[in-house]
Amino acid sequence: MMSADAPTILPLELNAVSLTLGDKRLIKDISCTLEAPQITIIIGPNGAGKSLLLRLCHGLLQPSAGAIDWRGAAGRNPSPHQAMVFQRPVLLRRSVQANIDFALSLRKVPRRRRRALIEEALTRAGLKRFAKSSARLLSFGEQQRLALARSWALRPQVLFLDEPTASIDPAATHVIEEVILAMREEGTKIIMSTHDLGQARRLADEVLFLHRGRLKEKSDAAAFFAAPKNDLAQAFLRGELLWWQRRELTPP
Ligand SMILES: Nc1ncnc2c1ncn2[C@@H]1O[C@H](COP(=O)(O)OP(=O)(O)O)[C@@H](O)[C@H]1O
Ligand SMILES: [Mg+2]
User: What is the 61 CA–ligand 1 centroid distance (Å)?
Assistant: First the structure.
C-alpha cells in the first residue's frame, strides 16, 4: 500500500530492451526512463508492440536483451507496488466485492481495513449497487470498471493499463478516465496504451510513440500533439499510418 513517505520503486529505466519470440524480433532496442508522477501514454498502430512493452515493464515477460530496472529506493522488490489492467478483464467467479477483497488479501491488507477500501473503490467506479452481484454477470464495461476499481483499492505506485477502454462505450470510458485521473491525483504513476487519440490527448502528460517494435518518439504530450518530431508519428496523427503500413510490409 502506498503512503506519502513510502520508498518509491520509480523511476523505471529501460536500457536497450529487445524481445525476440520465435524468430521474430518484436521489441527493438528500446531505451527510456519513466518518472513519477506523469501519465505516460503509449500510442502506435496495431502490432507496434504496445502490449508487449507493457508486459515487459510489468515483469510478465523477460527481455531477450537489455535490462529493465526500477531505480527507486524500493526498486529491488517492485512487484507489490505495481498492478495491471488488461484489455479483457480477468475476474474471479465471485461477487464484485469479493473480487476486490481477494486482491487486497493477496497483498496482506488486514481484513478490518478492507471494507472501507472496497466501498471507496466501488463508489469511485460507479459500481456500488453491484457490490453483491456476481462479477461474471456484469456487462463488459462494468467488468472493466471493476478491474480498475480492484487495482485502485490496492493503491499501487505504478499502474499499467493495456487499452482499457478498447471495446466499451463512451459512458463507461468516461468513468474509467475519471478513475485514472483520480489515481494520478493520489500519486499513482499511470503507464497506459491506447488506440484512441482523443483519449491520449485527454489523459497524457507524456507520449511514447511506438512503430514496429521501436520507440520512435518520447515527448511531453503538449509538444507531441502540437507537432510530433517523428515523421511516422506525424502520419499517425493525421490518420494515415494504418493503410500506409500495409504497403510497407512489402519491402521496396
Ligand atoms: N506470443 C507471441 N508470439 C509471436 N508474436 C507475437 C506474440 N505476441 C505478440 N506478437 C506479435 O508482436 C507484435 C506486437 O504485438 P502487440 O504488442 O500485441 O502489439 P500492439 O499491442 O501494439 O497492437 C505483433 O506483430 C504481434 O503479432
Ligand atoms: Mg495491444
Answer: 12
- Nearest residue (CA) to ligand 1, atom 5: 21
CATH number at residue 90: 3.40.50.300
Q: Is residue 96 part of a domain?
A: yes
pTM of the complete model beyond 0.70: yes
Nearest ligand, CA of residue 166?
2
Ligand nearest to C-alpha 208: 1
What is the tens place of the pLDDT at every residue in 74-133? Answer: 999 999 999 999 998 889 999 999 999 999 999 999 999 999 999 999 999 999 999 999
Q: pLDDT tens for residues 131-158?
A: 999 999 999 999 999 999 999 999 999 9
Instruction: Tell me if 6 is assigned to some domain.
Output: no
Q: Which of 18, 20, 26, 163 to mutate to test the pocket of ligand 1 (most atoms within 8 A of CB)?
A: 26
CA–centroid distance, residue 167 to ligand 2 (Å): 12
Distance, in Å, from the CA atom of 190 to the CA atom of 177, rounded to the nearest integer, reads: 11
Domain, as residue range, for 62: 30-238
Question: Which atom of ligand 1 lies closest to the CA of 53?
Answer: 17
Closest ligand to C-alpha of residue 43 is 1
Count of domains forming the chain: 1
pLDDT at 152: 94
